[in-house]
Specification:
Elements (H helix, E strand, L loop, with lengths): L1 H22 L3 E2 L2 E4 L3 E3 L4 E2 L8 E4 L6 E5 H10 L12 E6 L2 E3 L1 H10 L9 E6 L4 E3 L7 E8 L5 E8 L6 H4 E10 L1 E6 L14 E7 L11 H4 L3 E2 L14 E2 L2 E3 L4 E8 L2 E9 L3 E2 L3 E6 L4 E9 L2 E4 L6 E2 L2 H16 L6
Parallel strand pairs: 2-7, 19-24
Antiparallel strand pairs: 1-4, 3-5, 6-7, 8-10, 9-13, 11-12, 12-13, 14-15, 16-17, 18-21, 19-20, 20-22, 22-23, 23-24, 23-25
């Protein structure tokens, strides 16, 4: 009986010792996120012995990953004396370097810091052929700009960007940064989205005192200039009101009958006439006075009324004048007449 107890005690001690050995065994990390540029033994194995951790080699670039296969893991464990449970040639560990993204807003702010002549007013900085950059999250100065050039008249700028912490890859450590800087302007913008074919009224636009977006053509600043015009394409709220997106809405068509009105202090005259060209609201067109057979120039008030202002000089309606007006009207229609 005592012998059996002794054997059982020895067996229990052996189990306890084995359990303690396995308790101290390392386990593989299948994935690891590192913040430094060096891979350590503890990035591959957890539960290492005290003082066993050590650097293994360079890590991936910020935002990139490397994979360590089973055969290499076994070799590393053997070299550094790591008691690794469940060793297998099919094992795999993936190590990813933490990163942050430098986007367009970051580089636009960097350009502004390097161009003190821009002042403190609002500007729009549009980058061309831009690609975001991955950098270490704790890098205090990830990019340095050099050779910053800016043409104030055209707005074009260029600069060379260098990584603060080079990777050793010349194609990634520096690149050209180019774009256009637009100074803020006072102009009309759309108050809300409008579909193509919409006729604009004063409630559809508002004045932006510091618009800094890109302007590809003439922009409007006066509501009266665009009232009654038609949008040729869909527009979004906040975008600039540009002449390339508008055309004059025709109220009066060539050949339409119209009432000619003339008003001056103490005088109000009316006559019947016939429009000699198309015209939109507020647009000046030629009209034939049927009573006097004279041609006058007046402003389109509505689809049936032309207002002739004081100082307007009528011209005879001879065949040459009518032919000239007809040709001019046809050419103007092709060019989509704007307010004169």
């Amino acid at each position: 009986m005592p012998a059996r107890v002794a054997i059982a005690g020895v067996f229990a001690l052996a189990l306890t010792a084995a359990g303690a050995t396995h308790a101290r065994a390392a386990t593989l990390r299948s994935t690891a996120l590192i913040t430094s540029g060096t891979v350590r033994l503890s990035d591959l194995f957890a539960d290492l012995e005290p003082g066993q951790d050590r650097p293994l080699g360079p890590g991936p670039a910020p935002g990139a990953s490397i994979q360590v296969g089973g055969a290499q893991l076994i070799a590393i464990a053997d070299e550094y004396g790591v008691d690794w449970l469940d060793q297998s040639p099919s094992a795999m560990a993936t190590i990813t370097r933490a990163s942050r993204i430098l986007d367009q807003a970051y580089f636009a702010d960097l350009i502004r810091q390097n161009l003190p002549d821009l002042g403190n007013g609002p500007v729009s900085i549009d980058l061309r052929d831009f690609h975001p950059m991955m950098v270490a999250p704790d890098d205090p100065k990830p990019v340095v700009l050099s050779d910053v050039k800016w043409d104030q008249r055209s707005g074009w700028f260029s600069a060379t960007a260098y990584r603060g912490q080079p990777t050793g890859d010349i194609t990634r450590d520096s690149f050209m940064l180019t774009g256009v800087i637009h100074a803020a302007r006072r102009l009309l913008v759309y108050a809300h989205a409008l579909p193509a074919g919409s006729v604009i009224s004063a409630s559809d636009v508002q004045l932006d005192e510091s618009y800094a977006g890109h302007i590809g053509s003439r922009a409007f600043t006066n509501e009266a200039d665009i009232d009654g015009m038609t949008v040729t394409r869909g527009v979004v709220a906040g975008s600039a009101v540009l002449d390339q997106d508008l055309h004059r809405t025709v109220l009066m068509h060539k050949g339409d009958p119209a009432v000619i009105t003339f008003a001056a202090p103490g005088v109000h005259l009316t006559a019947t006439g016939r429009a000699l060209e198309d015209g939109g609201a507020g647009q000046y067109v030629h009209i034939l006075n049927l009573s006097s057979s004279m041609i006058v120039t007046g402003r389109v008030v509505s689809a049936s009324e032309i207002e002739v202002e004081a100082g307007s000089n009528p011209v005879p309606s001879d065949s040459n004048t009518l032919r000239h007006l007809t040709t001019s009207s046809r050419d103007a229609s092709r060019a989509d007449l704007s307010l004169r």
